[in-house]
């Protein structure tokens, strides 16, 4: 009897001790849940059932930056990083993502080459994954409560669990391991593997651990997979006159969320793409830029250029493979970035390649029209120069393209042998009239310069006048006028103000672009019934210019514009 009593007392003591230890153990679980497994003040990364303890993501507004080394290790081992150029190259041999149509899917079926800009943060390369989820075949979710980014590979089936009674999530398969979090009846979890009486799970907060299988009801569910990046565009047409501005992007795009909406502007064209000899388009696209542009009511026509290199262009136009690569890549980028249009800016092309260029534009247009994308092309004013003007088959291109943009500027170009206006009114009118001989008025957009040039004239050793120039923005001109206390005069026949001054034995001359000169040229769209205006480039203008252009675009009044043109003696 005594022996049984001792055993009983011993059991009670053990149970009491375990109870006390249990109370001490379970009480602080709320403070332990992320202390050792999650980095504070940074966005933690969880890839399926793996919590990355030493790496983190950075979320900046709508951008989600993930370390490139993490992408290569866990998501796609085929990526190649060029640290010097901050660029990630990706060749996808069997794409699983889908484009807008089945025909486009078949076009990329045999593979696609893509590249994306990376950013260097604390000497580590990051990629903005936003907009690229379907390219990498992943699903991304940010859990604000725990500051955790969850990345899942897209799968057809998934195991889901529902907690049947209150339970604890533990880091190890043991009831004696500490508690990560408390789970409540009805909580949902993702189930990964079963280990005896334990399931490895991930909670809705992004925590990963083990739960006793007796407290969880597990079901395998079918996932409705949508690998389609985008849909065929709707409402891409501009109602009324087009008011486009080119946005020069050297590499990284501006943050449009920090800019006010420009009233009257309806198309913005970032200079994002260039052809290259390595089979890749140089891609500087930015998903967030397009998103912000669309919020402001702008359509986005991304520009692609030929680097103004006629030898590179000849190589490109000789190679069906290079052309095919470009067309496929542009189709994919148009889907990724949700583009409304593509603007082709091929300049300095061998005249002998005229027909090849026209055929390439036709093929590119036929492909992108499956996405219902607007296709435009920039052209010089017609002239006799074979490699700068005559290589454009304007008549054929006018039938293929949605719009042709005649660049009515650089009347006197950067290396011109004599000083003069960039775009005098009569020269602009002549350029439009000659373009209309080949291109229908409803397809012709007039290019405007937001810049001018300051010409420096001096005498060489033989007494001959030499000139050189530099580009000035509108604000640059205002500053020079103010600093030198200059007078300006209006030149009726040129349609611009003019000023000049002498300094250190040299003569400086400026034909000024301002509100008045731009207004005069812009109103020609009604004289010739053109499709609209395109301005080079954003950042060169004064803010007041937008009010001028907006009043013209909104007015849509031919009688007013004609009266002003006649007033200037241009009828």
Write structural notes for this entry:
This protein has 571 residues and is α/β, with parallel strands linked by helices. The chain has 3 domains: 32-153, no CATH class; 155-224, Roll (SH3 type barrels), CATH 2.30.30.40; 242-449 and 514-563, TIM Barrel. The protein is built from 16 helices and 30 strands. The strands form 5 sheets. A 9-stranded mixed β-sheet has the order 4-5-6-7-3-2-1-9-8, with helices on both faces. The chain has an 8-stranded parallel β-barrel with strand order 17-18-20-21-22-23-24-30, surrounded by 5 helices. Strands 15-14-13-10-16 form a 5-stranded antiparallel β-sheet, with no helix packed on it. Helix 7 runs parallel beside helix 8 (354-368). The longest helix has 25 residues, at 2-26. It is elongated. Mean pLDDT is 91; it is low at 7-40. Keywords: Glycosidase, Hydrolase, Membrane, Transmembrane, Transmembrane helix.
């Amino acid at each position: 009897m005594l022996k049984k009593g001792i055993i009983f007392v011993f059991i009670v003591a053990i149970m009491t001790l375990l109870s006390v230890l249990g109370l001490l153990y379970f009480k602080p679980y709320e403070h332990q849940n992320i202390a050792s497994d999650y980095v504070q003040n940074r966005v933690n990364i969880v890839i399926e059932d793996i919590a990355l303890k030493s790496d983190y993501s950075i979320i900046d507004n709508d951008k989600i930056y993930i370390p490139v080394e993490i992408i290569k290790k866990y998501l796609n081992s085929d990526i190649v990083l060029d640290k010097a150029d901050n660029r990630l190259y990706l060749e996808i041999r069997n794409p699983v993502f889908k484009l807008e149509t089945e025909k486009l899917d078949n076009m990329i079926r045999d593979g696609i080459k893509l590249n994306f800009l990376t950013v260097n943060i604390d000497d580590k390369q990051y990629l903005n994954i936003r907009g690229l989820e379907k390219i990498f075949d992943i699903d991304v979710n940010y859990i604000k409560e725990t500051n955790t980014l969850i990345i899942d590979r897209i799968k057809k089936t998934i195991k889901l669990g529902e907690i049947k009674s209150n339970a604890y999530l533990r880091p190890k398969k043991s009831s004696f391991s500490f508690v990560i979090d408390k789970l409540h009846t009805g909580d949902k979890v993702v189930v990964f593997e079963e280990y005896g009486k334990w399931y490895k799970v991930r909670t809705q907060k992004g925590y990963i651990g083990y739960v006793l299988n007796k407290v969880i009801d597990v079901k395998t569910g079918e996932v409705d997979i949508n690998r389609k990046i985008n849909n065929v565009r709707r409402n891409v047409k501009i109602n009324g006159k087009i008011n486009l501005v080119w946005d020069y992007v050297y590499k990284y795009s501006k943050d449009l969320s920090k800019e006010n909406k420009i009233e009257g502007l309806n198309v913005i064209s970032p200079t994002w793409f260039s052809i290259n000899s390595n089979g890749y388009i140089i891609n500087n696209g930015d998903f967030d830029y397009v998103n912000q542009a669309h919020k402001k009511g702008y359509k986005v026509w991304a520009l692609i250029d030929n680097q103004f290199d006629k030898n590179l262009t000849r190589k490109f136009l000789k190679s069906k493979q290079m052309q095919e690569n470009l067309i496929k890549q542009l189709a994919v980028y148009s889907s990724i970035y949700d583009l409304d249009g593509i603007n082709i800016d091929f300049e300095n092309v061998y005249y002998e390649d005229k027909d090849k260029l026209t055929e390439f534009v036709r093929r590119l247009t036929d492909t992108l029209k499956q996405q219902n994308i607007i296709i435009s092309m920039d052209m010089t004013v017609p002239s006799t120069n074979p490699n700068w003007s005559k290589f454009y088959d304007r008549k054929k291109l006018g039938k293929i393209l949605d719009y042709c943009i005649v660049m009515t500027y650089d009347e006197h170009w950067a290396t011109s042998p004599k000083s003069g206006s960039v775009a005098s009114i009569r020269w602009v009118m002549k350029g439009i009239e000659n373009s209309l001989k080949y291109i229908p008025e409803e397809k012709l957009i007039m290019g405007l310069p937001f810049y001018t040039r300051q010409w420096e004239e001096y005498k060489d050793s033989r007494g001959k006048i030499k000139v050189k120039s530099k580009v000035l923005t509108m604000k640059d001109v205002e500053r020079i006028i103010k600093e030198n206390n200059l007078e300006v005069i209006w030149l009726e026949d040129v349609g611009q103000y003019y000023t000049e001054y002498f300094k250190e034995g040299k003569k400086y001359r400026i034909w000024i672009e301002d509100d008045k000169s731009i207004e005069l040229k812009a109103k020609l769209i009604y004289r010739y019934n053109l499709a609209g205006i395109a301005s080079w480039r954003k950042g060169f203008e004064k803010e007041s210019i937008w009010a001028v252009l907006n009043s013209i675009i909104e007015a849509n009044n031919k009688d007013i514009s004609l009266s002003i043109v006649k007033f200037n003696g241009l009828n």
